[in-house]
Specification:
The protein is built from nine helices and seven strands; from the N terminus they run ααβαααβααββαββαβ. The protein has 220 residues and is an alpha/beta fold. The strands form two sheets. Strands 1-7-6-2-3 form a five-stranded parallel β-sheet, with helices on both faces. The chain has a two-stranded antiparallel ribbon with strand order 4-5. β6, α9 and β7 form a beta-alpha-beta unit. α4 packs across α7. The structure holds zinc ion (ZN).
């Protein structure tokens, strides 16, 4: 099946050649000029959340949409270096305090049903690209730390803020057996809007007693 899918994707690529999500230039998903022209995300309202690009930017919106729904997995590789730099910067002294195994990298999970439908989790793809850049082995990849146990609706723009929070309540489960006590947990997501998902994810790992939880999103 995967083999067939990859043949299918090659055919699609041949019919619709890659073009920059910003300027349409051929042969690249997102060119450097277009990335450099995008603005920095406004500050998320929760201090533990960090975001790189402005989600109001059309290019970024298109890129993330393609990564999420159009199987354009290459965007994960494009975004990863920005996240990597951001995480390293945010860790600061933490890098010296915490050794390699004490900084856990956790992509925000999808519910297994949605994961199956989509075939991949975009945040996981980004996390794996970050790991490729992590030649110093700063991060310990622990996606199993967080499980999505509740199927949440796609969060529509018009959805009321409190509905969103209610919708996400108890969406995640963090198995007791995993050792996060005293460690730094880095949550990773593609987009953050109200921060509700990341706040709920943070809340669900609280009982594991991590020393610190920080979150990073490609866009806000
Ligand atoms: Zn471009």
């Amino acid at each position: 099946m995967r083999y067939l899918l990859s043949i299918f994707n090659s055919i699609i690529d041949a019919i619709f050649p890659m073009e920059c999500a910003g300027c349409g230039r051929n042969g690249i998903l997102l060119c450097e000029t277009c990335i450099e022209n995008t603005q920095r995300a406004p500050l998320p309202e929760h201090a533990f959340i960090n975001a790189i690009f402005d989600y109001n930017n059309k290019t970024i919106k298109r890129a993330i949409w393609s990564l999420k729904y159009k199987n354009a997995r290459g965007f994960a590789e494009i975004f990863a270096p920005y996240l990597y730099d951001e995480i390293i910067g945010a860790l600061g002294n933490e890098l010296f305090i915490s050794g390699g195994e004490n900084i856990l990298l956790v992509p925000v999970p999808l519910h297994k049903k949605r994961h199956r439908e989509r075939g991949y989790n975009q945040s996981e793809l980004i996390a794996r690209e970050i790991l490729k850049l992590d030649i110093a082995h700063i991060f310990s990849y622990t996606p199993e730390l967080l499980v999505r146990i509740k199927e949440t609706k796609q969060q529509a723009k018009y959805e009321k803020r409190n509905m969103r929070i209610k919708n996400l309540r108890d969406a995640f489960h963090a198995p007791e057996t995993l050792k996060a006590r005293g460690k730094v947990v880095i949550l990773l997501d593609d987009v953050t809007t109200t921060g509700a998902t990341l706040v709920e994810a943070k809340r669900s790992i609280r009982h594991l007693r991590p020393r610190k939880v920080i979150a990073f999103a490609v866009a806000h």
